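User: Can you recover a sequence for this backbone? Please restate the input before giving your answer.

Assistant: Of course. Working from this structure:
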């Protein structure tokens, strides 16, 4: 039986990035969004990735939010990514444009609060290589980020859904709730950021290891 895969997002220092890689994470995420406490510069991201063990199979994901072409090209000049995660309000046309420009796999993140938000995924089936379902922040949440707010949505909405593309489950996942989340949603890949942190932007290497091991044991 194939274990559930894990993405640790928002890594911004060598210690926690190496903890994720050594624990067996399948994906690591680097955030290129200046307003995020987890943000890294393209230059720093390149330095971090260069320190990863040679031959590692972990996939490197770059998270961007409504990025300009210039930002994308700057990132690509500094770090070799496997996947671009589009976490803003990018249209299907923009997703296609970015995919053609970069030649990278593209994952489109969708913010979910109700069934209609899941229906929005239909527009991206032909252009995105993967999807990511994250919790939509309520309008009343002050200083909400595009992702990484530690919020959970109702996983039952995914129970009877079939998607033609691989998808990740995100939104408030931690060591305590991830097993239930997988069993309810049927997710084959899970993504956490705030769930393995001391506080926003400060990852905990021990929590990373525990989360990865918990998920792979499901």
């Amino acid at each position: 039986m194939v274990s559930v895969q894990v993405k640790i997002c928002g890594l911004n220092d060598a210690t926690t990035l190496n903890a994720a890689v050594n624990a067996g994470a399948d994906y690591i995420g680097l955030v290129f969004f200046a307003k995020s406490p987890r943000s890294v510069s393209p230059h720093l991201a390149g330095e971090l990735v260069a320190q990863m063990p040679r031959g590692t199979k972990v996939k490197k994901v770059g998270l961007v939010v409504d990025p300009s072409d210039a930002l994308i090209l700057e990132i690509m000049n500094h770090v070799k990514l496997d996947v671009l995660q589009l976490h803003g309000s990018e249209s299907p046309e923009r997703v296609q444009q970015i995919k053609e420009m970069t030649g990278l796999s593209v994952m489109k993140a969708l913010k979910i609060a109700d069934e209609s938000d899941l229906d929005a995924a239909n527009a991206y089936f032909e252009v995105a290589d993967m999807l990511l379902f994250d919790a939509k922040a309520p309008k009343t949440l002050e200083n909400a980020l595009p992702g990484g707010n530690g919020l959970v949505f109702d996983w039952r909405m995914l129970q009877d859904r079939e998607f033609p593309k691989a998808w990740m489950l995100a939104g408030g996942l931690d060591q305590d709730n991830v097993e239930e989340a997988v069993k309810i949603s049927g997710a084959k890949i899970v993504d956490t950021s705030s769930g393995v942190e001391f506080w926003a932007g400060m990852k905990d290497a021990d929590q990373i290891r525990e989360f990865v091991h918990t998920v792979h044991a499901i």
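That completes the design. The first helix runs from residue 14 to 23.
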